[in-house]
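Run log // design_07
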């Protein structure tokens, strides 16, 4: 059974004001079905992307100050941007934002849900790699 975000008010009314047809549908976002799953998965993807960015920047900063082995970024584009953290942050935000926007636009399609699940699996594996990486420091 889907959960209404605005459970305290009807889908077509917000504080007594009538909303036009499309806005009434937007006012009652439902987290049931494919659309809701894709929205939740995209939110998880954005959080895991931020997690990856923070850990990348921390690892790079740690090895700049330490005399131990050097941190090597696996992504060649991110590796070239790592010397300028503000560029890396902008790159990751633009990339993640664009991907999230595309997946949200296509949220009712099966391919969007499949892509979200696949990307969540990739980011989950990356999280395990980060856990193991920081565990050996």
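design_07 sequence
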């Amino acid at each position: 059974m889907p959960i209404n975000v605005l459970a305290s008010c009807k889908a077509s009314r917000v504080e007594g004001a009538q909303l036009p047809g499309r806005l009434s549908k937007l006012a009652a976002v439902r987290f049931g079905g494919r659309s809701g799953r894709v929205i939740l998965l995209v939110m998880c993807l954005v959080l895991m992307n931020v997690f990856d960015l923070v850990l990348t920047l921390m690892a790079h900063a740690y090895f700049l100050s330490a005399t131990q082995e050097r941190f090597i970024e696996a992504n060649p584009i991110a590796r070239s941007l790592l010397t300028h953290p503000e560029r890396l942050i902008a790159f990751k935000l633009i990339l993640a934002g664009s991907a999230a926007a595309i997946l949200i636009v296509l949220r009712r399609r099966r391919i969007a849900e499949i892509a979200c699940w696949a990307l969540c699996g990739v980011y989950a594996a990356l999280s395990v790699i980060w856990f193991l990486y920081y565990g050996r420091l």
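The chain has two domains: 1-30, 33-135.
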